[in-house]
Amino acid sequence: MIPALRPGDRIAIVATARRITLPEIELAVRTFESWGLEVVLGETIGASYNYFSGDDALRLQDLQRALDDEHIKAIVCARGGYGTTRIIDQVDFTQFREHPKWLVGFSDVTTLHSHIHTLGIESVHAIMPLLFPQAGATDSIETLRKVLFGEEVIYTVAPHSFNRTGTAQGQLIGGNLSILGSLTGTRSDSSTAGKILFLEDLDEYLYHIDRMLVHLDRSGKLENLAGLIVGDMSDMKDTTVPFGKTAYEIILEHTGKYNYPVCYGFPVGHEPLNLALICGREAELEVQQEGVKMAYMPSGGVVLRQGSI
């Protein structure tokens, strides 16, 4: 298990995808420092190569340095966008496997979460520095702090009319739907059988969502789940001729033939309330008419269940 952070620990902020400037993450740096952490900025912060935070070589070098540095106790990805899949196959995880550390991010960082899961190592799907100034992000930031420092976390999840009741146990995996679909059949892909999968996405056409769900289902990713958590499907777009269903209705259609519990409306994704989740940790999902309870198994040390933050 990855050790919890302590005051005085050193963390690195790197950008593996879209470019970002130092002023955009200044609040995050100050926040981390207020937690007693020492922040080291990668060379990708402020770098640019067209769309990216430096060319592939620089982004690879920056991530590799942070992975290999034994004094770095956590790596926080500054933002998402696109670009992590371009370098993932060149990353050497040898040192990281011997000395695991927290890796934090979401969206495009789903590539890293998925790849790290194949190594049997946990990671944290959570808010990134770019979004710290976003109105309403305070609770998301606090859940990240609690998870990184090994404190108990309690979440309230309201019921949703699409929920399918039941109880499931399994490793929690997932992230951005578009990225997960693009990883199918690659060395960053892994089986979903017996696991609790969570999904979120942003700025996609509804027919794209349908196509991705069809693909996941045809490739066997939906059939043998222990449970499914559906997060935010934000800023969905439609065509001139309407697709005719919302993102949630599309997911409901493609998972309706299965019997595992499904939770809709879980606060994870591209919204201000994006609660920190530990990918790869054993969890229990209990979906009831009155609400949802998700708890990490006792050995995990972090608990998510109905209540308040």
TrEMBL record:
SUPFAM superfamilies per record: Class I glutamine amidotransferase-like, LD-carboxypeptidase A C-terminal domain-like
Keyword annotations: Carboxypeptidase, Hydrolase, Protease, Serine protease
Domain LD-carboxypeptidase N-terminal: 11-126
Xref: Pfam families: Peptidase_S66, Peptidase_S66C
Gene3D superfamilies (UniProt xref): Class I glutamine amidotransferase-like, LD-carboxypeptidase A C-terminal domain-like
Secreted among keywords: no
Boundaries of every LD-carboxypeptidase C-terminal domain copy: 169-285
Domain of life: Bacteria
Similarity comment text for this entry: Belongs to the peptidase S66 family.
Protein name: LD-carboxypeptidase
Organism: Pontibacter saemangeumensis
